């Protein structure tokens, strides 16, 4: 999709939200913009082996840790491998990672990600053998095992090869069983701490006001306080059940706010302009210089019956072309006008990126410019 189309879509969305062209804040539920501090996820990690690949595993000479792990696993299963040398290529050492959800109970299943450690070329068709997953405290919280699903593929012939996606990483859906629950208990909490996913003082205060308005109707006293741009503290009333309190609060609707930003990805040419972005009145002109170098060598033949030699005479033609559009006045009091002004200049994505960076340098872009 061309950048002009992307900008036009942004303009149409802004116009649909507010036909007059003035940005309006979005109303969202608290559960969509904030998370419970005691309900955060925890990261798990483990080291294991994937077996069953068709000759695409680790080469045991280049990955000695794979052979050591395989020998240790077989010894634990009662099989002696001393004195034997294995040349198997269907085993790969992997790192296994997973996120332990909040309030997870023993017996429930979670997805795990598997990534190759050695020189294996593909994990397709492999099976992850029993792997313990530990947390930051060193305790085992889950055990993973199952078939590895790899989205990428690779094909190779005598003179060419094709690889699509990543073949050395995959997932095991529902491959880990939780063996230990987290020590903290939700019911033991004396208050609730709501953490905003996008920190903002205005949104934080509005969340506290919405919770206090609900608390005054229910218990007659306010229970929430905005600590900073990210945290809102909610005190638990004596007569309230904490689970029901959280269920009621997370469905309250709050008008969100966010700072104006322009996000630019120079690699892909993607530009995302926020609804609150403003541009002061500026004059913009964009021009490019194109230099074309053409090599047309000529072959010079010697005269007949002469002792001369055939020579190659180089000939280079260099042309320069400078193109520049007219000077356009760009004034963006709202998103729709800004997008229309950028489209009227008629430049390519890299040109619009350069224009936005120059407008920011001139101090006319009233927004944060984020370069990715």
Write structural notes for this entry:
The protein has 372 residues and is of the alpha+beta class. The protein has three domains: 100 residues, no CATH class; 137 residues, no CATH class; 71 residues, Alpha-Beta Plaits. It contains seven helices and 24 strands. The strands form eight sheets. The chain has a six-stranded antiparallel barrel. The protein has a four-stranded antiparallel beta sheet with strand order 2-11-13-12. A three-stranded mixed beta sheet has the order 16-15-24. A hairpin with a 4-residue loop joins strand 12 and strand 13. Helix 1 runs antiparallel to helix 6. The chain starts with a helix and ends with a strand.
Show the helix and strand layout.
Elements: H1 3-17, E1 27-29, H2 30-33, E2 34-36, E3 42-51, H3 64-76, E4 91-100, E5 109-116, E6 127-134, E7 140-147, E8 153-156, E9 161-164, E10 169-178, E11 191-196, H4 201-218, E12 224-226, E13 231-235, H5 242-249, E14 253-255, E15 261-265, E16 270-273, E17 278-284, E18 287-295, E19 298-300, E20 311-313, E21 316-324, E22 328-332, H6 335-345, H7 349-361, E23 365-366, E24 368-371
Parallel strand pairs: 15-24
Antiparallel strand pairs: 1-14, 2-11, 3-4, 3-6, 4-5, 5-10, 6-7, 7-10, 8-9, 11-13, 12-13, 15-16, 17-22, 17-23, 18-21, 19-20
Helix pairs in contact: 1-6
**Beta-strand level of the residues, as a percent range?**
35-45%
Please state the structural category. Answer: alpha+beta
Which oligomeric state applies?
single chain
Distance linking N and C termini? 19 Å
Average pLDDT reading: 81
Please tell me what the overall shape is: flat
Helix content: 10-25%
Q: Give me the count of strands.
A: 24
Strand order of the largest sheet: 3-4-5-10-7-6
Task: Tell me about the largest β-sheet.
Answer: 6 strands, antiparallel, barrel
